[in-house]
Design a protein that fits this description.
This protein is α+β, with helices and mostly antiparallel strands and 351 residues long. It has helices at 56-60, 85-98, 106-119, 195-210, 255-266, 278-286, 324-337; strands at 2-3, 27-34, 37-38, 42-45, 63-65, 68-71, 81-83, 131-140, 153-162, 173-177, 215-219, 226-229, 233-238, 241-244, 270-273, 290-297, 301-310, 313-315, 348-350. The strands form 2 sheets. Strands 1, 2, 3, 4, 5, 6, 7, 8, 9 and 19 form a 10-stranded mixed beta sheet that branches. Strands 10, 11, 12, 13, 14, 15, 16, 17 and 18 form a 9-stranded mixed beta sheet that branches. Strand 16 (290-297) and strand 17 form a beta hairpin. Helix 2 (85-98) crosses helix 3. It binds pyridoxal-5'-phosphate (PLP).
């Protein structure tokens, strides 16, 4: 693969000051699509794009992305590891198909991802809970104001070293149950990782913050069934069952969600993918049967919910503190991604 090295490498940020998505490495991957075919992937210096202001992505939002993490390998075999890259590439293609964007050859693209991680291996942070966040992004670049699928695209892969989300321990979040705005509707683009879903979600999140809550719980169009929490999938422990809403078209098929379902079934927990109504949650909470609630996604992995506000009532899962199921899942996933524990599902792929 063609590698164009930067002539001015950047200093690496101090380990304690990584944050999330604020630092970027020296290089990025770029592949361009035109005349019906993808060109060859290239590794180029990280930097601004030249983009025509009429580029379709900027007007009609033909833009999709992915997010996953890479980690340092164990001391005796230190090659970096990518967490479930094939699942993320498959989901990139699913998003592309829904938005009339070109799909990629996932085997070829995985090779390019691995090469980029190898080139930037020194940037992968070392501390517990830290990782290299990998952000693939595909945008329509054709300059054209008509409404139809564009004929030119760029796929970019950015790398961002990220800190430990829970460096001071798992902290439960306060959640506002949103009853006016919706994130996605059946038949829409809710199941795709596309920028427009995020733009449409900002207002509810801002309103929730103004009321003293950190995020919103999204319901369906009828404001009955639970869909997601913020930009994460959501799980509940109801009695002794781990319950999460099904992939019915409007929610995002999280890879973390899938990993948790596989782990929980492997452990022999009772697992249910089924619709959950907000009324059911409220009632279960009053009867003391709502033991835990937490969001799941690549960035934070697990985000325990300490309180939900619904129609002036408080729904508090368990005692409002991170519960044993959430902690067990986080521990297991961190064990696998840090290569300290066995990887029974073959999720870690060497760069
Ligand atoms: C990315 C995302 C998730 C989580 O997906 P992971 O693959 O687990 O990171 C959940 N919901 C939405 C809306 C997302 O965009």
């Amino acid at each position: 693969m063609k590698i164009e090295r930067t002539s001015s490498p950047k200093p690496k940020p101090p380990a304690g000051q990584l944050g999330f998505g604020v630092h970027f490495t020296d290089h990025m991957l770029r592949v361009d699509y035109e005349s019906g075919a993808w060109g060859e992937p290239r590794i180029v210096p990280y930097g601004p794009l030249t983009l025509d202001p009429a580029a379709a992505a900027l007007h009609y939002a033909q833009t999709i992305f992915e997010g996953f993490k890479a980690y340092r390998g164990p001391a005796n075999d230190p090659a970096p590891r990518l967490f479930r890259p094939q699942a993320h590439l498959d989901r990139l293609n699913a998003s592309a198909a829904r938005l009339c964007m070109p799909t990629v050859d996932t085997a070829k693209m995985l090779e390019a991802f691995r090469e980029l991680i190898r080139v930037e291996a020194d940037w992968i942070p070392e501390g517990a809970g830290t990782a290299m966040y990998v952000r693939p992004l595909m945008i329509a670049t054709e300059a054209f104001l008509g409404v139809r699928p564009a004929n030119r695209y760029s796929l970019l892969v950015l790398l961002s070293p990220v800190g430990n989300y829970w460096s001071t321990g798992l902290a439960p979040v306060r959640i506002w149950v949103e009853e006016e705005l919706v994130r996605a509707a059946r038949g829409g683009t809710g199941a795709c990782k596309t920028g427009g879903n995020y733009a449409g979600s900002l207002l509810a999140a801002e309103r929730a913050k103004a009321k003293g809550y950190q995020q919103v719980l999204w319901l369906d169009e009828a404001h009955q069934q639970i869909e997601e929490v913020g930009t994460m999938n959501v799980f509940f422990v109801l009695d002794d069952r781990l319950v999460t809403p099904p992939l019915a078209g409007s929610l995002l098929a999280g890879i973390t969600r899938d990993s948790i379902l596989k782990l929980a079934r492997h452990w022999g927990l009772k697992v249910e993918e089924r619709p959950v109504r907000i009324e059911e949650l409220q009632q279960a909470s009053q009867e003391g049967r709502l033991k835990e609630a937490f969001g799941t996604g690549t960035a934070a992995v697990i985000s325990p919910i300490g309180e939900l506000s619904w129609r002036g009532q408080k729904i508090v899962p368990g005692d409002g503190k991170p519960g044993p199921v959430a902690q067990r899942i986080l521990g297991a996933l961190q064990g696998i991604t840090s290569s300290k524990e066995a990887d029974p599902f073959g999720w870690m792929v060497k760069a």
